[in-house]
Amino acid sequence: MLYTKDVDYYMDYLKEQDEIMCMKIHGRKPSLFYNIDFITFDNTNNPKCNTITQRCARGKNIFDMRYIFIPIHHGLHFTCAVIYMEEMKIEYYDSLRFDNVTRHGCRHKVKIQEDTLQVLRDYLQKEHMKEKHIDLPNEWKLYTMCNVLQQDTTNTTDCGVFVCMYCNFILNDCKLDFKQDNITNSDWRDRMILSILLVKPTNDKECDNNDEVNEVE
């Protein structure tokens, strides 16, 4: 299982990989990787953007980016949203199936995802007005990605791994064609841990007592 800090560290790793790709591929636009506390939820599960925490976006025009990756931690579950700046769309990725077998109360998941997507669109609208002094174009679309590859119904601890893999594959412009078996029966998990260790500060504690894990009820 991954901790919230681990997902943030993996975003740092992907940021380094993105910088390498931008140096090697002429004309490739950079991407932004937000921390997991960018999207927070109140007591009634209403999402909001915590723009103060996102130092990586300061002094940058987000509309010059290729992608914006946003890991999300809600309750004890990891999901993510990806903003496709060039394609003018925002997609929400959840590795748990939309049924009541895998997670209590998941009939509400679609609404939470739709609310989160709208919050992100409102964020873009605000930034667009700030940068360009006009409204965000109406062509922007919001999608809840119900058809992405998902973890087994018997597995409730790999949502953080799936989020990291979604972001990795999208960054590298790959199809999301991996499966649970690729994570369970291959070295992907070990490679992910090594990637996290590459960017994790050496003086950082292994895990704070307050840090939450990605187990799902």
Strand and helix map with partners:
Layout: H1 4-24, E1 32-33, E2 39-41, E3 47-49, E4 67-74, E5 77-84, E6 89-93, H2 109-132, E7 141-145, H3 159-171, H4 180-184, H5 188-199
Parallel strand pairs: 1-4, 6-7
Antiparallel strand pairs: 2-3, 4-5, 5-6
Helix pairs in contact: 1-3, 1-5
Low-confidence stretches: 100-105, 205-217
In total, how many domains does the architecture comprise?
A: 1
What letter string, H or E per element, gives the SSE order?
Answer: HEEEEEEHEHHH
The biggest sheet amounts to: 5 strands, mixed
Could you give the count of β-strands? Answer: 7
Shape: globular
How far is the N terminus from the C terminus?
14 Å
Indicate the structural class: alpha/beta
CATH class: Alpha Beta
Radius of gyration using CA atoms only: 17 Å
The percentage of residues in β strands lies in 15-25%
Q: Please work out how many helical segments DSSP would assign.
A: 5
The helical percent reads 25-40%
Q: From the 3D coordinates, which CATH architecture would you assign?
A: 3-Layer(aba) Sandwich
Spatial order of the strands forming the largest sheet: 1-4-5-6-7
CATH homology superfamily: Adenoviral Proteinase, Chain A
Mean residue pLDDT: 82
Explain this structure:
The protein is an alpha/beta fold. The protein has one domain: Adenoviral Proteinase, Chain A (Adenoviral Proteinase, Chain, 3-Layer(aba) Sandwich). It contains 5 helices and 7 strands. It has a 5-stranded mixed beta sheet with strand order 1-4-5-6-7, with helices on both faces. Strand 4 (67-74) and strand 5 (77-84) form a beta hairpin. Helix 1 runs parallel beside helix 3 and helix 1 (4-24) crosses helix 5. It is globular, with a radius of gyration of 17 Å. The two termini are 14 Å apart. Residues 100-105 and 205-217 have low confidence and may be disordered.
